[in-house]
Automatic annotation (TrEMBL):
One of its GO terms (molecular function) is zinc ion binding. Residues 94-272 form the Peptidase metallopeptidase domain. It comes from the Bacteria. InterPro entries: MetalloPept_cat_dom_sf, Pept_M10_metallopeptidase, Peptidase_Metallo. Residues 251-272 are annotated as: Disordered. Residues 1-29 form the signal peptide. It holds the Pfam family Peptidase_M10. GO terms for biological process: proteolysis. It comes from Nocardioides exalbidus. Keywords: Hydrolase, Metal-binding, Protease, Signal, Zinc. Gene3D superfamilies: Collagenase (Catalytic Domain). One of its GO terms (cellular component) is extracellular matrix. This is Matrixin.
């Protein structure tokens, strides 16, 4: 999810909550530990989206309370990771990516519920998807308009749905390849049309980066803020201008444009 440009990542996502205690050096560690919320406090403060999913790190979803507890425990116990060199999400130590055959057919629908904005949403999705497709011959997002009338996560004609939502919590949010099918949707608030230099195409390209398995670049220690967790593997050198880096988290891009480093990263896992 991309939060508004004037806000930080929501405190309920723990990406910011954890920042208070995950980056504090020795002398302040004890005090920082006192500021760690209990799991019950954290769960109560975490935003729940459509279908009851918990939204963390701005635009990533967690399906159940048990999975949220696992996430909480990882955050509380995590330590900063030294970067060796885009970052890919990992699950159980393995890269969270699509198979080659699935990456070549990432089918989606765009809900008719977008109404008068639907044509613009279709165009923005195609433009955002095109940024990743141009960087890797192994990535292909396929729009299936025949599924638009019933564009939900239960429609087996597509891999994922693109649906409108109304929220003040984010502009858009997405999912990872490992997410359960009930979470495989991209939800978009109508604030996407009034986000200044963040174009709808770039916002959706950021979200589709998550769909491809890529994490927020600012979870890396070089960012110095907005740490999320250590469940990732570096694909490229740190890039403060990455399309996956929130500008408000010490990022150096004002418009979420894709960089050459982003292109190198996707090509390294899905093919050039």
């Amino acid at each position: 999810m991309l939060t508004s440009r004037i806000s930080r990542i929501a405190a309920s996502s723990l990406g910011v909550t954890a920042l208070a205690f995950s980056m504090v050096p020795g002398a302040n560690a004890a005090r920082a530990q006192e500021d760690v919320p209990t799991f019950q406090e954290f769960r109560a403060a975490t935003f729940q989206d459509v279908g009851g999913q918990y939204v963390v790190n701005g635009d990533e979803t967690i399906a159940t309370s048990n999975e949220l507890r696992d996430y909480y425990e990882r955050m509380v116990n995590s330590r900063d990771t030294d970067s060796q060199s885009l970052v890919v999400n990992t699950v159980g130590g393995a890269d969270d990516l699509w198979s080659a055959s699935q990456a070549a057919n990432l089918s989606y629908c765009v809900s008719d519920d977008f109404g008068a904005d639907k044509a613009d949403m279709v165009a923005a999705m195609q433009s955002g998807a095109g940024q990743w497709e141009a960087a890797s011959s192994g990535v292909n997002f396929t729009y299936v308009p025949s599924a638009d009338a019933n564009c939900t996560t239960s429609n087996s004609a597509v891999l994922f749905s693109v649906e409108p939502t109304e929220t003040t919590q984010y502009i858009a949010r997405a999912f990872f390849p490992s997410s359960p099918s009930s979470q495989q949707n991209v939800l978009v608030d109508d604030s996407i049309w009034t986000s200044g230099s963040w174009t709808p195409s770039n916002i959706l390209a950021h979200e589709l980066g998550h769909v491809l398995g890529f994490r927020h670049e600012h979870t890396r220690p070089e960012a110095g803020t907005c740490f999320e967790d250590n469940n990732w593997r570096p694909l490229t050198p740190y890039d403060s201008s990455s399309i996956m880096h929130y500008p408000q988290c010490n990022g150096s891009s004002s418009d979420l444009s894709m960089t050459d480093t982003d292109r190198e990263g996707v090509a390294s896992v899905y093919g050039s």
